[in-house]
Amino acid sequence: MKIATILGSPRRNGNTAKVLSRFEALVTPGHEVDRVNVASHKVNGCLGCGKCRENRDEPGCVQKDDALPIFKRMMQADAIVYAAPLYCWDFPAQMKALIDRHFCLVKGYDTPDYKSFLEGKRVALLVTCDGPIEDNADVIQIVFDRVSDYGKCRTVGKYIVPSCTAPGAVDSKGAEVARRMAADIAGR
Question: Domains in the chain, start-ordered, CATH in brackets?
Answer without folding.
Answer: 2-186 (3.40.50.360)
